[in-house]
């Protein structure tokens, strides 16, 4: 594109924004339709021009305007952090109250949950203020009472799930699912405004609370990230600087996503690292990481201020490991857990994909709300029967992470050595049920995250392995493998609670395939700082196993591929000696505009026939530049109205100056600063340029002559060609992001 | 470069490596001379060709060879991790023993340090086995004893420092300083083989132990990273795959650097993040981060196994904060500390730069060993006088991080409320002295890291502010600002030990300008997980202040600039509307080879006159490709010997085929797959392409005609133009990396 010198832009911007070429571009830029991808280079150029105009203002204005810009940005970042911190805190309170409502209510105030209702009662005493529904309705018989309890439990669960599904279906269809795949695509340049609308924000937050309270096998983590991004988007709409620039908006969204994770796990560092590793957004600019850092910290402070759990701690599942040391032989059960986690994680992904495909092709597609009702009824019934899953998943995880301690209540007899086999059986059963339920639930018409169920599955398995190892030690205390244990049997050698943490790490590694951010989240979640090494090792090993079993790149990458979003996975692509020539669409198969040959009417036909985002312009074979669809459409629209203009030839360069009255000069549309490569460049390098420079297309020329072109969609197709179900869930209308 | 199809390469490689064009390239690639920069694209291409050859082997060989390659890589990564973990552990033991030797020795075994000598003695009892030098020489008089003690203390300190300096000066001049600036430059592509030699490894490790034990104001962190990289380099020399590829070597070095940090701070996560943020190496390939992750974990396991401090913990400076909560009013003293840290950090950098420049221009340049002796004598004398600096810096920091506790020994009366003003004065004095000594020491002819002294300075100031705040609370317990403190005066409200942690974070933020990796390192170092938010806030604020005061990017960036290494800082460069045309060297000022015009003799003259790394080849004005200096020199060397060949014209293309006998065909030397841009591309984009794609040059063409060229050195010069002392310490001979 032409780069006017700052002085010229300054003059133009004084005249009025519409006529300024710079601001004209910005104006076009915000006109992306849903389903397209933004042009990062163009956006960055527009932003650059805008700041240059500001800086070149004389005197105080030139100093104040950029400062004012930055302060608006920080205002949004901090307000989003505050907002998501408070929202997250209050959602926790709401969920706790709704969840407790399934069992009873507070006699002196309907809106108290069990803990706050009984806060005056000393521990050890019975809490009379909290009435179960049986007490309330004065049902005396034990049988009738338990029937009543199970009935209320299941029907309230179904009612919550039903309301969530109806809300989502009626008001904000994009508020379902986790939202992280979409956020990843949006941060990569995908345009999907409806996904971030205020309605989606409201319904997702409310629906999330209902869905979690219903006891379905889902978590709040992913949806909270979505809610946080909706907030930042909503706030950004108030400022022209962000309304006009999709690129600037996305930088805000990245910070908001970090804040969302920070609140979801009470893990401010984990939030920043999640943004770094999983969203792959901070790699480009340290400034963006910086904002994520601030948003994360602010969100965590706000959450700590709300203090939803009454512990004034950020650490959700405090691990109370008695000893800080671990022994080398424990690596055997831990690596076993890592292998199980890797395999089961791959399996869960595959199952989830199959169910999603089945849902799409079967009658379920027509009745999403009924599906939610059915699954929630089944989940509630099973949960009520299997003791470990009756409580909220977060409570289950907290209990499984606890070590046995004589001073504390023994959770469901987990610490009873004689009941070891029953416990192991129940834990494995719970894990198996949760795998099936999670694979089904993740993708239904309700807000649902996959982190917490995965942690719960892993914690069950980990605790089971821990109990088995402990049993082995109890049976053979003098075996050589246990030599490193302290000889005194009253000192604990094996901590099954910590095995549950390892199980959770392994399972998360297998499902999400994250590495370092997962480790940080886990140890901010558990406070198990001294055990960071085993956590690292299990995450590493399970990712390895998972990658060996399924080359899918984790649950989020799978969903992105299934929905067909234009997102470039940050994988290391390795070619086998191919060059750009093997990847590019050759010039013979390209739709090009020929300088001084095509008429206005030709261009109109071309625009109607092809939905490409832009077209190369050539003179004979020489490449002149690139014209984007939007600019071209806007430029020829007025000319099409007059019949005399339609047959005029379009000129993009100064090559041919004859017959001026039969020509229309469109040279101002031409973007000249496009990237050109020779087709001999290795394919690997082409792919990595798309990944690192956020390109939308690369033009191939040799000696100035156009030889071909590669677009982002070609690269996405190349990188997802191994996955069999690519775009199987996409709506079809979204295909034109080429 | 030409990309032969795999089958052809396979045949050629069967014939013999020297004749294969692919391996020929690899061979050239390893011939970089010290002081040049590697060509990443060429290296990557060579590596790609090599793996393609392997994969295209038939049958089992095709499967086994790549697997074998990968296992060699993992072998080096794991062995380096083990090696640096063990080395780090044993260095700690050595340092402790040497340090204790300054005060006395163990009566029943000379090689025991004080702790292990007294390990049989119950706590509370006096340890008779440990004899001070006064006891040993049976000096009775108190005056004579203290004179003897101070004499032995100072003279042993000087002796240690002297040996370290002599070792470095005589055997491995590159073993001085921290090493991190050089590692950063090397990872960015700088070639500096002498820096990684086995001699450097040995001398740096030994010298480091002596330097630390001498009590000079320095730490072991940076040098350990250097030692770790030397190890990886040493191991990599045994495998042809790494010997031939500078790019592959660098990927190993990145993992080794992470392992070094992991051992230095006992912080495996911090190591990975340091690699990510400060060395900026993992951004390019997730595979490299993965290796860093493994190396870091292995190194930490090895260190824990050596268990140098007898605590079986990785956490070096365990914080024993009584309460997990902090109060909002504490943000005022903490932000004050952050401001002090930011300003003092900038000041320390500026002071260090001035001293380095003075050293270079003054007589000190001739007498580096004498300088070390002088500074170590002064340091030892001052340290002996000021009570807080008499112990090793690491012990001081550990003591300052401790909270006061009635059950524990009160370190130098820090917990005595009546001595508050004396303590504050002493702490501030210690900090001031340490600032001066550190600024002088960092850059002398001994191995020296800057992390630990910075932590010590910050901890002193932090503890002082903590004591003042505590004093204020004690004086006005009912003031409104302290309303959030518990009313019971026996419950501690303000924890001065944690203020020391905040002070250390702030100071580190100001000196290194790191963000997220610093936070992770600090909380792995202290275990203060519940206080991660205040640490984040203080690091953030002090980096902000530091950046506002000095736009230098931290101490390492300053040293890189002073030494003139070709390293691209990962800053966000913002142009003011300029394009590539403003940055490039225009074609009129380029040294180009003209196809079919220049003779062999011309080329020889050109090679002698200019030390550029390569030359563009043009036919009239059309750009044909790029020829690197190395290839050209090797190709024309045999031709220069025959007089008849010297006057032949060099042909690089098929344009001119007449007069075949008067021409030499050099077309095989031409690299055709070079990156070309139009000169209208924004400057910002050009800079970011250099930063992200590891380029060595970009050619600018318009319509196939050469218009200019930008090299890495142009971009480095652009990014460091704000720093006044660029290349002021470079040796001049290293300038030819253009």
Automatic annotation (TrEMBL), chains A, B:
Subcellular location(s) of the protein? Membrane
A GO cellular component annotated for this chain's UniProt record is:
early endosome
Keyword Signal among UniProt keywords: no
Q: Which domain of life is it from?
A: Eukaryota
Signal peptide range equals: none
What GO molecular function terms would the record report? Answer: voltage-gated chloride channel activity
Q: How does it sit in the membrane?
A: Multi-pass membrane protein
Note the Pfam families from the entry.
Voltage_CLC (PF00654)
Q: What is this protein called?
A: Cl-channel protein
Q: Which organism is it from?
A: Mycena alexandri
């Amino acid at each position: 594109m032409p780069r006017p010198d700052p002085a010229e832009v300054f003059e133009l911007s004084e005249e009025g924004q519409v006529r300024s070429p710079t601001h004209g571009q910005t104006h076009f830029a915000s006109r992306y339709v849903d389903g397209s991808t933004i042009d990062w280079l163009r956006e960055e150029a527009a932003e650059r021009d805008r700041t240059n105009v500001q800086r070149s203002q004389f005197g105080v204005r030139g100093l104040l305007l950029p400062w004012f810009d930055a302060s608006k940005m920080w205002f949004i970042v901090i307000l989003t952090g505050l907002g998501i911190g408070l929202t997250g805190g209050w959602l926790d309170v709401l969920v706790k109250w709704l969840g407790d409502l399934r069992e009873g209510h507070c006699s002196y105030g309907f809106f108290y949950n069990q803990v706050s209702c009984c806060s005056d009662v000393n521990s050890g005493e019975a809490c009379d203020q909290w009435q179960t529904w049986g007490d309330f309705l004065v049902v005396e018989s034990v049988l009738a009472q338990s029937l009543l309890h199970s009935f209320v439990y299941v029907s309230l669960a179904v009612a919550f799930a039903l309301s969530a599904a109806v809300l989502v279906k009626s008001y904000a269809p994009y508020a379902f699912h986790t939202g992280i795949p979409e956020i990843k695509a949006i941060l990569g340049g995908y345009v999907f405004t409806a996904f971030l609308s205020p309605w989606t924000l409201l319904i997702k937050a409310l629906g999330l609370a209902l869905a979690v309270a219903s006891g379905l096998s889902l978590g709040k983590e992913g949806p909270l990230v979505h809610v946080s991004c909706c907030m930042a988007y909503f706030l950004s709409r108030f400022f022209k600087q962000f309304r006009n620039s999709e690129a600037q908006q996305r930088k805000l969204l990245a910070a908001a996503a970090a804040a969302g994770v920070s609140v979801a796990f009470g893990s401010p560092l984990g939030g920043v690292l999640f943004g770094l590793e999983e969203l792959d957004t901070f790699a480009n600019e340290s400034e963006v990481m910086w904002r994520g850092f601030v948003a994360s910290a602010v969100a965590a402070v706000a959450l700590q201020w709300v203090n939803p759990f009454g512990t004034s701690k950020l650490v959700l599942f405090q691990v109370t490991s008695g000893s800080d040391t671990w022994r080398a032989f424990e690596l055997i059960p831990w690596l076993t857990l890592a292998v199980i986690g890797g395999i089961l994680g791959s399996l869960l992904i595959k199952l989830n994909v199959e169910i999603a495909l089945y849902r799409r092709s079967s009658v379920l597609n027509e009745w999403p709300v009924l599906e939610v009702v059915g699954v929630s009824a089944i989940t509630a019934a099973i949960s009520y029967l299997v003791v470990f899953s009756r409580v909220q998943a977060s409570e289950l995880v907290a209990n499984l992470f606890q070590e046995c301690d004589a001073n504390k209540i023994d959770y469901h007899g987990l610490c009873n050595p004689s009941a070891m086999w029953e416990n192991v059986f129940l834990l494995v059963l719970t894990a198996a049920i949760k795998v099936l339920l999670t694979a089904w639930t993740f993708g239904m018409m309700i807000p649902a995250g996959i982190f917490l169920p995965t942690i719960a599955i892993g914690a069950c398995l980990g605790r089971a392995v821990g109990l088995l190892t402990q049993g082995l030690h109890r049976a053979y205390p003098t075996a050589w493998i246990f030599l490193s244990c302290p000889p005194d049997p009253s000192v604990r050698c094996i901590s099954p609670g910590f095995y549950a943490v390892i199980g959770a790490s392994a399972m998360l590694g297998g499902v999400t395939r994250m590495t370092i951010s997962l480790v940080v989240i886990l140890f901010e979640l558990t406070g198990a700082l001294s055990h960071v090494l085993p956590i690292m090792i299990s995450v590493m090993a399970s990712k390895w196993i998972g990658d060996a079993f399924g080359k899918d790149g984790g649950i989020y990458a799978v969903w992105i591929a299934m929905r067909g979003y234009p997102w470039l996975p940050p994988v290391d692509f390795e070619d086998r000696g191919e060059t750009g020539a093997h990847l590019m669409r050759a010039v013979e198969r390209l739709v090009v505009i020929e300088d001084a040959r095509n008429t206005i009417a030709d261009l109109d036909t071309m625009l109607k026939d092809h939905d490409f985002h832009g077209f190369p312009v050539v003179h004979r074979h020489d490449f002149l530049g690139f014209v984007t669809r939007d600019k071209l459409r806007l430029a020829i629209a007025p000319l099409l109205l007059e019949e005399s203009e339609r047959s005029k030839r379009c000129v993009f360069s100064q090559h041919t100056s004859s017959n001026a009255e039969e020509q229309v000069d469109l040279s101002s549309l031409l973007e000249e600063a496009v990237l050109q490569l020779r087709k001999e460049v290795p394919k690997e390098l082409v792919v990595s340029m798309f990944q690192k420079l956020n390109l939308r297309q690369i033009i191939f020329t040799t000696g100035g002559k156009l030889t071909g072109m590669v677009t982002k969609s070609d690269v996405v197709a190349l990188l997802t060609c191994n996955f069999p179900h690519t775009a199987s869930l996409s709506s079809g209308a979204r295909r034109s992001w080429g």
